[in-house]
């Protein structure tokens, strides 16, 4: 099964809200979600990188939520639908965000200069990161407050926001904390081997 097929299967199996069909249509036919990178150079900076990252975060979040301590001691639970929504769509802000450009680089093997492609940011909707994802998803489906906060604060303490505000949000909305852990696990551990 390809990453695209896996994403669509999870999406269709787990997400059943009004507007979900229009959201999937947008991802498939009006965006570059299935082909764009996850970043310009940090993690999954390759074609299809965002799709792979979204699947990795989904798998990491599912595994995190299944830990006995998370359920028993912390009392954290979320529906399968909520888990799929926040994990698969947390970085939707990156669709139609990158474009391919070219620069000259020296080939280490030949010593010759070559024209090579690279990704650059071309942001036509400068609305932040997490908040932009919330805004975009909310245009199609209604999010619960917990889901909106999880997507908004998924960067955790690695974002540029005031650390006190981040800490308060993660304390108040445990799914946001869980998603930020899953996002970091995918970015810093799983995806290091994929590049």
Description:
By secondary structure, the protein is mostly helical. It has helices spanning 3-14, 20-29, 49-66, 68-72, 80-89, 130-138, 145-152, 163-172, 174-188; strands at 98-106, 113-121. It has one domain (3-97, 127-189). 50% of the residues lie in helices and 9% in strands. Strands 1-2 form a two-stranded antiparallel ribbon. A hairpin with a 6-residue loop joins strand 1 and strand 2 (113-121).
Keywords, please?
mainly alpha, single chain, 50% helix, globular
Mind sketching the topology for me?
Layout: H1 3-14, H2 20-29, H3 49-66, H4 68-72, H5 80-89, E1 98-106, E2 113-121, H6 130-138, H7 145-152, H8 163-172, H9 174-188
Helix pairs in contact: 1-3, 1-5, 3-5, 3-9, 5-7, 6-7, 7-9, 8-9
Helical residues, percent: 40-55%
Query: How much beta, percentage-wise?
Result: 5-15%
Distance between the termini: 20 Å
In spatial order, strands of the major sheet run 1-2
Shape: globular
Please give the number of β-strands: 2
Order of helices and strands: HHHHHEEHHHH
Radius of gyration computed on alpha carbons = 18 Å
Number of domain modules: 1
Give the uncertain stretches in residue-range form.
none
- Structural class, from helix and strand content? mainly alpha
Nearest-integer average pLDDT: 91
User: What is the overall number of helices?
Assistant: 9
Largest sheet: 2 strands, antiparallel
């Amino acid at each position: 099964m390809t990453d695209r097929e896996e994403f669509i299967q999870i999406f269709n199996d787990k997400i059943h809200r009004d507007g979900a069909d229009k959201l999937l249509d947008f991802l498939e036919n009006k965006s570059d979600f299935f082909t764009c990178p996850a970043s310009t150079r940090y993690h999954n900076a390759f074609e299809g990188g965002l799709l792979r990252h979204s699947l990795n975060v989904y798998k990491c979040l599912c595994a995190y939520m299944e830990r006995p301590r998370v359920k028993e001691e912390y009392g954290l639970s979320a529906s399968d639908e909520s888990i799929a929504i926040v994990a698969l769509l947390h970085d939707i802000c990156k669709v139609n965000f990158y474009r391919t450009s070219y620069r000259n680089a020296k080939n280490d093997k030949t010593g010759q200069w070559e024209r090579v492609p690279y990704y650059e940011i071309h942001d036509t909707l400068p609305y932040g990161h997490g908040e932009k994802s919330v805004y975009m998803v909310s245009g199609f489906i209604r999010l619960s407050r917990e889901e909106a906060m999880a997507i908004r604060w998924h960067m955790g303490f690695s974002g540029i926001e005031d650390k006190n505000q981040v800490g308060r949000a993660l304390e108040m909305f445990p799914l946001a904390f869980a998603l930020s852990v899953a996002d970091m696990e995918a970015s810093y551990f799983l995806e290091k081997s994929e590049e």
